[in-house]
Amino acid sequence: MAKHPWLIPSVLLAIASVAIVTFNSDAFATSAPPTEEPAKKATGKSKDKDDDEGKETAKVIVGRSAKAANNSSKGKKMDEPEYNKLTAEERWVLLNKGTEYAFTGKYTDHFVEGTYICKRCNAPLYKSDDKFHSGCGWPAFDDEIKDSITRKVDADGSRIEIMCKNCGGHLGHVFNGEQMTKKNSRHCVNSISIKFVPKSKELPPVISNKKTESEKESEETPKKSEK
Q: How far apart are CA 146 and CA 117, in angstroms?
């Protein structure tokens, strides 16, 4: 260097350049991860939020799809009536043909003027005028409202089952020839299958599964045109 003093500035400049490049590289390597880390965290939070929203949305969509699939597989129609909601006990009697314990029903000793309707569909079944005390432990009627009851031989072959004609709900059994009333008939009905409406109150609308004449005609029209 002493022999070539003119090289000193060049050497110093080269050293300074190397130092600057090294410093920048270290600074970049040190500062880069913190910059990327928040980005990862932010992305992570966004992903978690999306997952939560996606699962919640999926539950609703899947639930509806499953329900629709079940309805389709069971052959349910869109216009099928939605009957009154029933408790487990009411379902057991009305839909599974069960029987409540004797002397436990609310209408066994009930004698008030009014109408007894079907618990499932509100169809009027019996008038209080036809109710009598049979001592059997269940509400007894010696007659029904016209065209309200369907009779069917029970599975045991010895009794006659009575059902609501409108919805098919199980009511109980009918017995004839006991000479308890002048009509010589006893409808032995489960209290849990019926609901009493006092004479002073208006009867609720019947939930019917029967199609109106206009609906029948609209369904028959395409068939006629095809012929």
A: 13
Global pTM exceeds 0.85: no
The residue whose two tokens read 């130092």 is 19
Which tens digit of pLDDT belongs to each residue from 139-185?
999 999 999 999 999 888 889 999 999 999 999 999 999 999 999 99
Q: Which residues share a beta bridge with 186?
A: 175
Residues catalogued as catalytic: 188
- What per-residue string of b and e applies to 123-145 under the rule 16 or more CB within 10 Å gives b? bbbbbbebbeebeeebbbbbebb
| Closest CA relative to residue 150, chosen from 134, 174, 186, 127 | 174
